[in-house]
């Protein structure tokens, strides 16, 4: 007998509730903590140049994060959000894609954008909302976007990117493109209705999309244990009939290989795949958060020992692909460069105020024009309260 889905139904004659316990989905891992491969593990097909490009992107992400969190504390930018401990997830997954693949991110995946070629200047222009920011200064810091790099602009409302990614991928499929979509989100975002709508549509329409869930243990102050029971996010994708893999998010090689194989599967036959990447958000949620109120130092220290960059670095050293002196010199130069680029971006002029209401409508409606005039009157009347608006506006 078949059900309305044409799936075979097995009949039983006693009540037996299905219990998910004991059906835990395993975690794919290649590298041990000492940077050596497990005996039965195979290293991905990765040459030295790409392996080092991934490493440098991860290190650059971390140094940029350190510097810009400090800049926020100094009052130079209004907001910042680090990816400390999660660099491998973003960089290694992006490294397994082709440049024509579309990325829709949440907000903690700056490593993916950096790997794609977003420059330090471009990061800084966005963070300082200056006239050279691709978003014309109209978004909060860290809401990056880059059409040239196929990276959709970040938006704050959680999970909106998930059904959008399904739609982008459906478009790729209809157009017969040789490209897929990768969609990042946190385990917290997976509590939104959009997660379920996005996954189900993707499964039914067989859209070429990788749902990449960063399960970093927290949604701001809420630990995963208070967000859901059951076997994480991976088991939900199984329920939607989506191919699923769980991976150690602190293992650069495993994340790369998982994403590469997911992409190959999708190219062979259009379909969604979900990867649940297990990690830990080592830093605060953002510059507005202080984790000491909801978790212990001891817990953080345990996870610090599983630093993705440290483990990958050991593997590169074992390979003979990384020189320690070289590495140190490179980081020193990079720190200086980041500081220099930051100072330049800080000095650059502001976007013209009039551009605030452009680009959404073919011509701005009267309502927006009125609001802009109100804003100008406000700035003129109370200049002391709007120091950022003083001078430096590019016409
Ligand atoms: C619809 C919506 N609700 C609430 C928020 C506030 N908020 C911003 S980030 C966040 C936590 C998200 O956690 P997760 O998806 O796990 O990502 P992580 O920050 O851990 O990377 C919340 C609740 C929001 N931005 N949008
Ligand atoms: Mg989270």
In a nutshell, what does this entry contain?
This protein is an alpha/beta fold and 395 residues long.
Low-confidence stretches: none
Give the overall shape, derived from the CA principal axes: globular
What is the string of SSEs from the N terminus onward?
A: EHHEHHHEHEEEHHEHEHHHH
User: How far is the N terminus from the C terminus?
Assistant: 72 Å
Q: Give the mean pLDDT.
A: 95
Helical stretch tally: 13
Largest sheet: 6 strands, parallel
Bound molecules: thiamine diphosphate, magnesium ion
The side-by-side strand order for the widest beta sheet comes to 1-7-8-4-3-2
* Secondary structural class: alpha/beta
Let me know the number of strands: 8
**What integer value in Å does the Rg equal?**
23 Å
Q: What is the helix content?
A: 40-55%
Strand content: 5-15%
Describe, in plain words, how this protein is organized in 3D:
The protein is an alpha/beta fold and 395 residues long. 42% of the residues lie in helices and 9% in strands. It has 13 helices and eight strands. It has a six-stranded parallel sheet, sandwiched between helices. It has a two-stranded antiparallel ribbon with strand order 5-6. Helix 6 links the parallel strand 3 and strand 4. Helix 4 packs across helix 12. The longest helix is centred in the N-terminal third of the chain and has 26 residues. The mean pLDDT is 95. The site of magnesium ion has 6 residues, from strand 5.
